[in-house]
Amino acid sequence: GAGVSQTPSNKVTEKGKYVELRCDPISGHTALYWYRQSLGQGPEFLIYFQGTGAADDSGLPNDRFFAVRPEGSVSTLKIQRTERGDSAVYLCASSLAGGPSDTQYFGPGTRLTVL
Amino acid sequence: EDQVTQSPEALRLQEGESSSLNCSYTVSGLRGLFWYRQDPGKGPEFLFTLYSAGEEKEKERLKATLTKKESFLHITAPKPEDSATYLCAVQDTGRRALTFGSGTRLQVQP
Prior knowledge:
By secondary structure, chain A is mainly β. Chain A contains no helices and 11 strands.
């Protein structure tokens, strides 16, 4: 079956602009996660959705970052007034959740470059 | 606060030369420890989940082990296609978020 998909694969924007990054999870997965990965580092947690609601948004760095999942499937990560420090690979993952084996499966990521 | 430290940062092996990667962790309560493989320009690919000290899992040339403070990823007779970054992550009880280490970049030369 299809894995996690993310669009666009690459996004170049200018400082101060608004961007949206999309994630389409594995069909049937109720949990969805966003992570951010800087060069040479491991992924850092941003936010976790269970269904339509954000169950844990403790990783969002500030109020310029916002994410939604209105129908409990596709999610959009929104970044306002982008800064050069926002440049990174944004990874999305999904899992079945609710059981002992909460394996998170990752998408290919969106590489965001803020000029 | 959960912490994960991986060593070495980089490792270069000759084909067939076995070795181990280390993942040291601190967590208030361990729900699971995860190993992922990441190729350049791609997302992390799931390898193993370990839940309790003493547990071991194997897949082809890879074997993961777990103690109360660290996990090892043993690579037996590696091949060039095993070259990748290997990431370790922990999941705390009561949270779904994964805390990752910085990874070990493995290069296997023919």
